Amino acid sequence: MTPRVCVIAGKAAPGYEVAKRIIQLACGVSNVVNNDVRCANLLQVVFIPNFNVSLAELIIPASDISQHISTAGMEASGTGNMKFVMNGGLIVGTADGANIEIGRAVGPTDLFSFGATADEVAALRRSMAQRRPAMDERLERVITMVRAGVFGPPQDFEGLMDNMDSTRDFYLLGYDWASYLEALDAADAVYRDQAGGYRVLFGYALASSSSSSSSSSSSSSSSPPPPILLLLLLILLLLLLLLSSSSTSSFCSTSSSFSSSARLYERSL
After folding, report:
1. Cα(89)–Cα(83) distance, rounded to whole angstroms?
2. pLDDT digits (tens, 9 = 90+) for 70-108
3. Range 104-123 average pLDDT
4. Assigned CATH topology for domain 4-202+251-268
5. Where in the chain are the domains?
6. CA distance readout (Å), 115 to 99, 104, 259
């Protein structure tokens, strides 16, 4: 397992009960994981409350991998993922929102995509009751732990867990689960591969300069990337390569920092 710090940031409006429960569950998971000696050097979970632009300025540059995981077609992935890309972060995400544009720019193998496509979602929902799809055993174990009270009073999370039933899974979390874990494994593999990791980040940086240029200019879609920005990116990547060649530390010498939002939380807000 690649050591990582999982950072979840957000806030809930007073009337959004589902969002509050998800935040409560995130804090419960954080409390259990961070106090388990078996996780000490492998996994830590942090919830940062009252997420805003000032916090984003600290979190986004620190992230090595970010997750943008809205159900395809619901487009909770906006320009936030572009900011992660511009700061050299790998993306794990669904085929939704700006993930699609970034995937076109960096290539399908360098964006770690998973889950149903927007064209598949409606049909999967319609056939859910008839298909009664079997739940992935790993997801079933997670739900069993939540219902057993491992992360807090189980009655507080009953509604969340009930909606994970395979015949009520509107957001297709169960359907996407296996491919989501595979995408995380693929991102981890690139993160551990120093040469391959820098190649992917180089592609991300170049793609982000093109995206930022086209997004900020309404006069011409064919305008080249700002030369100063591109030069700074190239200098930064050169410095990283020089540092890596003169140091014994590896590409994964620090814990991977994940910034992720629970899909239900995104939709609740």
Report:
1. 9
2. 899 887 556 788 888 888 788 899 998 888 888 888 887
3. 88
4. Rossmann fold (3.40.50)
5. 4-202+251-268
6. 13, 17, 19
The strand pairing partners of 45, in sequence order, are 6
Question: What is the number of other CB atoms lying within 10 angstroms of the CB of residue 236?
Answer: 13
The whole-angstrom separation of Cα 257 and Cα 4 is: 6
Residue appearing with tokens 């359907």? 175
Q: Is the pLDDT of residue 252 over 50?
A: no
Structure tokens at 25: 């569950």
Answer yes or no: are the C-beta atoms of 18 and 268 closer than 8 Å.
yes
- Dihedral of alpha carbons 15, 17, 18, 23, sign: positive
pLDDT at residue 198, rounded to an integer: 64
CA 146 to chain CA mean position, Å: 22
CA distances from 28 to 66, 83, 149, 265 (A): 22, 29, 10, 16
How far apart are alpha carbons 247 and 218 in whole angstroms?
Answer: 44
The pTM score is 0.74
* 218 or 103, higher pLDDT: 103
Question: Rounded mean pLDDT of 17-35?
Answer: 93
